[in-house]
Amino acid sequence: MSDANGTPGTPTGPRPEPLRFFGTTWVDHDGGYAGRRVGVAVGSLVAAAVSCLVLRFAYQGLEVANVGKGVTLLVVVMFAVCSAMAFNHTWGSFTKRPDPERQASLPGLLAIGFVGSLLAYFFRSLREAPGEKLHREDYEEARAAYEKRTTRRSGNPARKRRS
To answer: How many CA atoms, within 13 angstroms, populate the side-chain half-sphere of residue 123?
Structure first.
């Protein structure tokens, strides 16, 4: 936007909140949005595959250490359950804002279940930018409120009735 002198002005109204890896390209799906989605999908899937390979090495390390079947089973179940819970939490955070108190209590779970979070990121990026739906709803709500405020104020003062 600019004024009559050609100097750049400040944009009016609410601004979209940038998303990780996407910036504000999610608003109009421009600026390489499709390529970024493909990159995020491939990157998260590759990271999940590499993570599973690392977990396989950890499992082999438990076998070499001969810690026993009970400990090995406990570790495998722990990673499976934490990954499922991390997937569920990450998937849910794309559609609604997470509770800050609950979020503060989850870093350990999310760290252990990192494979689930990566898979949630992969599956969501096949449909849209992860978190786009939530950000779009917030942005459209803010724009509608802004438009309502500016429409209310922008009446022609010459046409107003005088009492």
So the answer is: 11
Q: Which helix (H) or strand (E) holds 112?
A: helix 107-112
**pLDDT value of residue 7:** 47
Is residue 128 situated within a structural domain? Answer: yes
149-160 tens-digit pLDDT = 887 655 555 655
| Residue 42: partners with Cβ closer than 8 Å, 6 or more residues away | none
- Is 148 a member of any domain? no
Strand partners, 8: 2
Q: pTM for the full model?
A: 0.78
* Whether the Cβ atoms of residue 121 and residue 93 lie closer than 8 Å to each other: no
Identify whether the C-beta of residue 115 lies closer than 8 Å to the C-beta of residue 83. yes
Question: What's the confidence (pLDDT) of residue 101?
Answer: 84
For residue 107, give its domain range.
52-135
How many helices (DSSP H) and strands (DSSP E) are in the chain?
6, 0
Q: How many domains does the chain have?
A: 1
Query: Does any domain span residue 86?
Result: yes
**Mean pLDDT score, 132-138:** 89
Angle, CA 83 vertex, CA 80 and CA 84 arms, to 5°: 85
